[in-house]
């Protein structure tokens, strides 16, 4: 069985009652993600995907194609409109998990690295404090053991250990991203979700963060979903890739195949736009 198996994952946005035809009237064939009848925005619809243990799955697509909506639902940060997600550590549909179960799963089984640092870290806390928060949430109580684990995680993610007790808002963007990764992997989750892991970083810093994550991913064999509009990021990290457009998956396959022999014109356009 896959680590995660998602079917028909759908998310609507809007103030009005969906008319019932929103999915049929949106998507790549219509070139839009907003229902012309009722105004509902279809963030994503009917998304099927699976993630094997230890595998990296990339999700690419232009801005607004539904990548973050999908990632946030899988990270249990956003309620789904419909869908079924089987996850190895959960009995039942993951999308139906109640509040306590979500908190529990997020603390121990699913690590999330948010696109915006403020969504993932408390910048007034120390860097070490942010990582310790994850450990405390998972039940760690011994002060010395927590310090030692945070120190190890800083070393692992290449954050200077002597900055551990400094407020996180004094860290560089690259260091803050690394602290988010340290926090995400603190409790050895089975799945890590990286949402736009390089946004806002200089090119040289991006490369170092990606190299660091790739090393950790391989050493720990942790399954990862990496969401990015940047094909270079996905090409570097992902074994398999799904391409999204107007809220739908339009192509999927081994990353090398998708990049070298895209079956859809849109994928080809995406690739051409970065070459
Ligand atoms: N809270 C919301 N309320 C209304 N519409 C939303 C909301 N969040 C997302 N959307 C819409 O859903 C669609 C998909 O957005 P989403 O953020 O998932 O795409 P994305 O591919 O991650 O884009 P980006 O790369 O810009 O973050 C977009 O049209 C977006 O405007």
TrEMBL record:
InterPro entries reported in the protein's UniProt record: AAA+_ATPase, ABC_transporter-like_ATP-bd, ABC_transporter-like_CS, P-loop_NTPase, PhnK
Keywords assigned by UniProt, alphabetized: ATP-binding, Nucleotide-binding
GO biological process: organic phosphonate catabolic process
Coiled-coil segments on the chain, per record: none
GO molecular function annotations of the record: ATP binding; ATP hydrolysis activity
Domain of life (superkingdom): Archaea
Domain ABC transporter intervals: 4-271
PANTHER family given in the database record: PHOSPHONATES UTILIZATION ATP-BINDING PROTEIN PHNK-RELATED (PTHR42764)
Official protein name in the record: Putative phosphonate transport system ATP-binding protein
């Amino acid at each position: 069985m896959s680590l995660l198996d998602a079917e028909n994952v759908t998310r609507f946005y809007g103030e009005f009652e969906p008319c019932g035809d929103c999915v049929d009237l949106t998507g790549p064939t219509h070139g839009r993600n907003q229902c012309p009848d009722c105004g509902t925005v279809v963030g994503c619809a009917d998304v099927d995907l699976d993630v094997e243990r230890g595998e990296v799955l990339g999700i690419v697509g232009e801005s607004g194609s539904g990548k973050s909506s999908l990632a946030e639902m899988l990270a249990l940060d956003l309620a789904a409109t419909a869908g079924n997600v089987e996850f190895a550590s959960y009995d039942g549909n993951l999308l139906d998990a109640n509040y306590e179960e979500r908190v529990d799963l997020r603390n121990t089984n699913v690590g999330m690295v948010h696109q915006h640092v403020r969504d993932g870290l408390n910048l007034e806390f120390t860097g070490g404090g942010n990582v310790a928060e994850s450990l405390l949430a998972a039940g760690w109580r011994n002060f010395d053991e927590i310090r030692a684990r945070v120190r190890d995680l800083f070393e692992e993610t290449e954050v200077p250990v002597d900055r551990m007790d400094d407020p996180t808002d004094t860290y560089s963007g690259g260091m803050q991203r690394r602290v988010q990764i340290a926090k995400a992997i603190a409790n050895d989750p089975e799945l890590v979700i990286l949402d736009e892991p390089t946004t806002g970083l200089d090119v040289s810093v991006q490369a170092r963060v990606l190299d660091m994550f790739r090393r950790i991913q391989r050493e720990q064999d942790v399954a990862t979903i990496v969401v990015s509009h940047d094909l270079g990021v996905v090409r570097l990290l992902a074994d398999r890739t799904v391409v999204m457009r107007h809220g739908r998956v339009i192509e999927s396959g081994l990353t090398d195949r998708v990049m070298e022999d895209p079956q859809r014109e849109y994928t080809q356009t995406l690739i051409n736009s970065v070459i």
